Amino acid sequence: MKILYYDCLSGISGDMNLGALLDLGIDKEYLIKELCKLNLNGYDIKVSRDSRKGIEGTKVDVILQDDAEDIVSEHSHNHESHNNHDHRNLKDIKEIIDSSKLSSKVKELSIKMFLKIAEAEAKVHGKPLYEVHFHEVGAVDSIVDIVGAAICISHLNVHKIMSSSVELGGGFVKCAHGIIPVPAPATVEILKGIPVKLGAVPFETTTPTGAAILAANVCEFKDNNNFIVNKIGYGIGNRDTEIPNVLRVMLVEENNLSNAFKVEKEEEVFQEIIECNIDDMNPELYEYIIDKLFIEGALDVYLTPIIMKKGRPGIKISILSKEDKLEKMKEVLFKETTTLGVRGFKVYKTMLERKFAKVNTSYGDITVKEAYYKGKKIKSKLEYEECKKIADNMGISVREVYENLKNEI
User: Fold this and answer.
1) Of the residues 39, 145, 309, 327, which has the fewest C-beta atoms closer than 10 A?
2) One domain, residues 245 and 333
3) DSSP string, 298-327
């Protein structure tokens, strides 16, 4: 399972996040090309190498020009002039994002992050959600930070996102409202229910933008982990503080292998299937829903085209799950789909004994899944994600990787 892990040893901000994800391998030109679809004018992105306490990484600066608050869009007649970004609210931000040519997934992630900030600001200032005026996070640089985060996260296409506890810093910070304590009230509100640390340095280490990136995307916060680390990126912050002012991100996989292999015994188990039929939902949403179900612990999710009453075409969503995950599955279906009801039933499943072995090949170590029936190996299979990674790195097709490896396993 491919996991993006945030190590927030010195907190997180929007620019540190972009730096870390570029350092992890996201192409700068790809990010800039996608950001152009936002139809925002008047900014430049500066990407450079820098270091903090001897740790080198990527530093990203969004540099505003004089006309940074002008919005250039084919739908610009629908927008008021936002020369003062203090007047931008959630509706304004949604219009900017929705009128862009970004993918539906990037739009959804972007709005989800802004919604986290809006909800926190509304709570802190005692105002209705759509009456909250964004201040710092309504500026072009913050819009670029948040939408850039959505672009990078969508491009990585990981199975789930995890994080360490989050360092918030201490002291006081100056903002549009004046001098406020660190962590800022909005930051604390966004991170409610999330493990945090305080006071490592007398500065703000986690901004509302950084907090929203974590709150909207991370499904599990955990410090003690058992990972295989495949790739590391460092995003460089603006201050040279007592601790390294860096955000570390890693592409990891859960360490399910003990030494060279792991064996899963042949077993017969009962599991649960939960289903619902849908005929009135935007089909673009299915990908997001499937990803969400897997993040919440689904063992399998699949879609079946069906004909419903009155001859209406529809989709049946089926989820295979352990019993203790059923409530989570129902929650996703009720919150994320148009269904008004679900059904469930137990199924009987027989699983072959499996061995996951690391095999040394001409491409390096590759994980191979071997299946046994009554103690005899009857089939084996290369791990697709590893073959895909080899193909991407070498500029060849996945089919060619499979062909070259079939005689080596």
Assistant:
1) 309
2) no
3) -SEEEEEEEE-GGG-EEEEEEEEE-GGGHH
